[in-house]
Amino acid sequence: MLVAPADKKLLIIADIHGDSQMLLDLLEKGGAVIDGQKNSEVWVCQLGDLCDCSGVSGDAEALELSRRYIDCQLIGNHELGWIRAGAPEFFGISVPSAEEAALIREIDWQPLAVAREKLLIHAGVGPLILERLGLAADEDDPLIVAEEISKRWEEYFYGDEDDEIFKAVGRYRGGSSDAGGIFWLDWGELTEQFAQSPDFALKQIIGHNRLLQPEILGPVSCIDVGGNWSETSYAILIEDRQEFLISKHRSS
User: CATH number for the domain including 118?
Assistant: First the structure.
């Protein structure tokens, strides 16, 4: 489990889906890369779906940028199969090329991180996931939640058994789970769960959902608008506990 340093600016980048130029532009706009060099005063986290894993986008270039410039690379549902088994996680995902596979091995992939008392995670943690972790639905300490998920992650990643905390897919994404998993939880499911658990207070910054624009639901901020799919991506720059939203459109 990675915890962001308290003495640095934070740049948190949403889903990219293989658009390496958009990623580089956000890194530069957020001050993390200056004249091709990493700025050590900015800690960078990318929320997963760095790659599209479809065989038609610039995944290798995005992976190389992550290797060079990103301090905390989270796993998205698109990369999960590549990283855990070297194979597709779901229909439409390709097998990584030799170049992509080599770059994947050089990156320290993480299921989550904690920054400024917030959980950074791909799809999010809802009240039902908290209950499946054996925690109260109103647990609001991101370090406690991250520790419980990290314990399960080690067993899942290196084991042969599936774990619904990671694999579960809800009906909004064509599955049957009522809780969803941390790589698959949909904004619609999170909205329903939040309505049923008004005391839910776990602060998070997530991606995954391809919204029309960044949205806030109670303690959860979603900044994913599609990346390569919508030609737009967002990042949050956090400096002295102030948050600034940065956007990049492919044509701008």
Answer: 3.60.21.10
